[in-house]
């Protein structure tokens, strides 16, 4: 008889997650090249037409580079982690982090993406960051590509639309694997790889004004990323004995709005399209249901000899994902639509929403974990989850973010329930343990952190760090291994 698990395992990896383009800054220091993220301007709310990162045209890129556009590009400056990483890591260590998820800025290592030799100053920076983490006993969890495609690859190949980018990505991965093989065990190949469906520029550095068929180009580019991911998974296992390589999906569990079979089938289809990406990474082959989808949408995947074997023989060791919301779909046009969820859908009357309209669904996380485990039987890692909200600094400098504590508490409770269900969950990294520039809106006022950063949407502030109430709460969660919430 199997004994049910009671709580989080002793070696559970608690920590926080970030991305280089949202916190490092120093966009033009020490030989770093420009990335696609450096071209994203801050758009004030009153001028914003959509919640997600905008697609950018080739002409706009030229105007930005020529200096004709006078706008703020917050991801170029981040929160200056580049110069303050020791201070920030000390705060993470004070919270008791077991793991810290960060990304390597590809253009800091290969400024154009297609360079033959790496930038030593960039390599040295991450040496120092990893050494600082290891000094405190914090495991680095490193994302190789987190919406940071070198701009040079966009200009030369239209990003991942060009198969040539595979070889440059593999060279980059091989370089950092060899450099950090004694410092980094856990790796992710691509962040939220499915986001390319919503934003080809964000996910793949693709300028859609340069393609004839966006859907065809997007899925072809994704094929290139799947092959590249499998190739570097193989490399990591060869170069770093004992390394663990994972994929990363923006998971949005989709519910039918009613028990009408039409709605149920619609939700099933949406879940298939979302889980296609983990099917590719964990099973190593195109699932049957995508054959019909491709045929009906005139998508033809062009493969090179050996692609199928590479995919099949180099599946990931674990599955990681972000979870912020669930989605509800209906075939009816009569139901009210949501305004905040990234993939649309109708309002779920049983859920509340965040300040940005993202529907809050802790039980959906338990459902997601169970569905992943039942489907793949591979270890799971929640590498993004958190609440973006407005924070108020009191006169004495304190920040009472009980709403953030409540959000995380309810999600961690459901993680524990999933573990009791038998799910193999190995870690949790809360998104944005320190306030950083928002990916989707390039603003600072959408804050996730346990640590407040004095910086506003217009780039004003001291960059001083201070603790919110949630800092001590999360510290206690980690110290008690999730028992005291």
TrEMBL record:
Annotated gene: ascB
Keyword annotations of the record: Glycosidase, Hydrolase
A single GO cellular-component term on record: cytosol
Protein name: Amygdalase
Pfam families: Glyco_hydro_1 (PF00232)
NCBIfam families: PRK09593.1, PRK09852.1
Entry similarity comment: Belongs to the glycosyl hydrolase 1 family.
InterPro entries in alphabetical order: GH, GH_1_N_CS, Glyco_hydro_1, Glyco_hydro_1_AS
Domain of life: Bacteria
Transmembrane regions listed in the UniProt entry: none
Active site: 384 (nucleophile)
GO MF: beta-glucosidase activity
GO biological process: carbohydrate catabolic process
